[in-house]
Amino acid sequence: MRELAFLLEPASRGLRPANAFLSGPPGTGKTASARFMLRQLEDSGAHVLTVYVNCWQESTRLAVLSRLAVTMRLPLPRRGLAEDEVLTRVMEALRKDQRVLIVVLDELDRLEGRDRLLYDLSRAGEVHGVKAGVLAVSNDPALLVRVEERVRSSLAAKSLEFRPYSPPELKKILSERARMAFRPGTFSEEAVAVSVAMASKNKGDARLAIELLLRAGRYAEQHGLDSVGAGEVRAANEPFRAKPVEELPEELSKGEELLLKVLKSLPGAKKAGVESGVAYVEYLKEKNESERSLRAHLAQLEKRGLVETWLEKNTRFIKLKKAS
Question: Which end of the chain has the smaller Cβ count within 10 Å, N or C?
């Protein structure tokens, strides 16, 4: 947090902040830290425009640029505008207002055309006379390695690694939350310990640990119990217990099953990976679907841990994981 504050501090003086790349497993505080820093800057009275973008929801360059425009209340015609026109309007408005722009791009790995957008923002000062900073957030610590070299050089982002919480750290966090959430005497240390143990098996995810204890509290209320113990934590979370990856294909949709079958038939899909366009062409030979539907199938397969995807020179590649 101190390092992040140091990188962003120039923005409070009207100067361009440093760019940062926040990486680490889920539940380690990346998004919370980034959003906290945005609030700190806003509350300081600095002449800044802070924009948070979740790239799961705003998954294209145009969507992100449109989010910037909407945040700035710039009128956009109903007929729509080309990406570069939206970029020009946003940058012109920022230059006239002389505000420093800070953008958080959360879940950056989900953004299509990220190389182009990162290049736009990192060169905003040189091209448009706008001071801009980027906080890129991802679970994938190697994400920037796959970004084009010239973009990576222009961005020059400081990497901040958010490591998984250790069991003692999780216990401290959860104990503090429990004291805030439960009345005195209504939860036990055993409940906290079991929640911590379960979360520790999931890479030290603090968000999961909090959710586990919350479910136990709701379970106790539902069953008229006066307190939450280890048994309530286990009972409340049994229905949510994740199934092994090898069981997941049985629950795939027909489209997902077909796409997985197509990928398994393609040479190289298990080793070096294949271009998504090649996979789509083969898929369409089996079933006629829109490209949007295919992307949705692919996203679900990746979410389940059956495939991984990445971009190289604006081409998306797909690789089967061993579990599939």
Answer: N
